[in-house]
């Protein structure tokens, strides 16, 4: 940085002087030109990917795919003190798990790389030098102690803390003198003039006079790393980003970014700020809530399509709120002009319904259907032979993991048997893991139930068991059987047991059959 500031005080007399507007980055830093739609998802790897980030990524992805464009993952890792080990890999892993992989990313590479901001420091230094030369930026020599005093004084007077722009008025001689003592000062951007108005694609026309309420912001820290404001402007320009779809919390900062674009002589992209995704009660999603991270949902057996479905159904951007949409349907139906300014309220208690494939909205009422599509995500997978084979393999692994040495008969792992289990129980489970819960353990192991427990269920246990065994002996006369048993014969027996059960966790006829045959 010392060299950079010396060049400012003694500018070179060559055509290559860096006061000109910067073009798109070439060679190793990549270049991309053209009118194609290019959007980016730019999280900070200071935590794992959560539902709010997934929603922002999804809207960028479906907007890009709808317009035949590119979806870029850029990791904003400039705050090196807050990086979480494994977070960068987790973000890209979870995007791939969700079915919305980036076209360009740190892992995949691409023409506009590198895609880690910590590897793009030369670009930020180049932009900063141009701003210094044009007078749009200046070095700041204020000590941390002075800045802290300014903050405390403002808070004592019940004012918003802001920098007083003291170093803005230093002369060249004063700057040179201070550089001798502090060769690596932070650089601030000079906020001046009227902020340009801009038309947000969601919130309409906006203008925020940041210079009247804020002090000049730091754009390059003394360690050579940029702050968010400079980095996002420089990277969006050099990566050829055409549209910036990001959270509404950045709406006010956009005027500051537009001032940077103007000072650098660059054409800004179009902006669309997305309303927040909130809890059902209107409170903010918090990273401290462990159950909002995608890893939690993946481990619990929720399907990616169910998550994409619920976070779009609770918001806007579509002609109607409809459950059961697949990713191709989301892409086809998405319309950015339909995104409203209202926050989306997420009710995670409904997620099992989305995952299972049958919601209360689809249940018939007074003999008629409400008209919602009865094809949600788990049932859709079951109905597809290829996907069903994959479910069989996953369930076999789950059974092996859950029961292991408890499996008295390993024939229960037979693919045909497991497939029939899935077909039978698909309308009764929310995710595949349910089939290895204690409620369904009888499907895989012989249940150990005492006579006292059976007596508490029904006084007719012996009668029902004998009738079931008698029915099984006559199964050869009933070719249309399910799971090896004539299900139609079990229905009246099941109702006898169910209606006499004093507890919710009643045994079904299959359990009694296994008990009686021991």
Automatic annotation (TrEMBL):
It catalyses: tRNA(Gln) + L-glutamate + ATP = L-glutamyl-tRNA(Gln) + AMP + diphosphate; tRNA(Glx) + L-glutamate + ATP = L-glutamyl-tRNA(Glx) + AMP + diphosphate; tRNA(Glu) + L-glutamate + ATP = L-glutamyl-tRNA(Glu) + AMP + diphosphate. Signal peptide: none annotated. Non-discriminating glutamyl-tRNA synthetase that catalyzes aminoacylation of both mitochondrial tRNA(Glu) and tRNA(Gln) and participates in RNA aminoacylation for mitochondrial protein translation. Attachs glutamate to tRNA(Glu) or tRNA(Gln) in a two-step reaction: glutamate is first activated by ATP to form Glu-AMP and then transferred to the acceptor end of tRNA(Glu) or tRNA(Gln). In vitro, cytoplasmic tRNA(Gln) is slightly glutamylated, but with low activity. CDD domains: GluRS_core. It holds the Pfam family tRNA-synt_1c. InterPro entries: aa-tRNA-synth_I_CS, Glu-tRNA-ligase_bac/mito, Glu/Gln-tRNA-synth, Glu/Gln-tRNA-synth_Ib_cat-dom, GluQ/Sye, GluRS_core, Rossmann-like_a/b/a_fold. The keyword Ligase applies. Its EC number is 6.1.1.17, 6.1.1.24. Belongs to the class-I aminoacyl-tRNA synthetase family. Glutamate--tRNA ligase type 1 subfamily. Its main location: mitochondrion. It is found in: Mitochondrion. Residues 37-351 form the Glutamyl/glutaminyl-tRNA synthetase class Ib catalytic domain. One of its GO terms (biological process) is glutamyl-tRNA aminoacylation. Coiled coil: none annotated. It comes from Delphinapterus leucas. This is Nondiscriminating glutamyl-tRNA synthetase EARS2, mitochondrial.
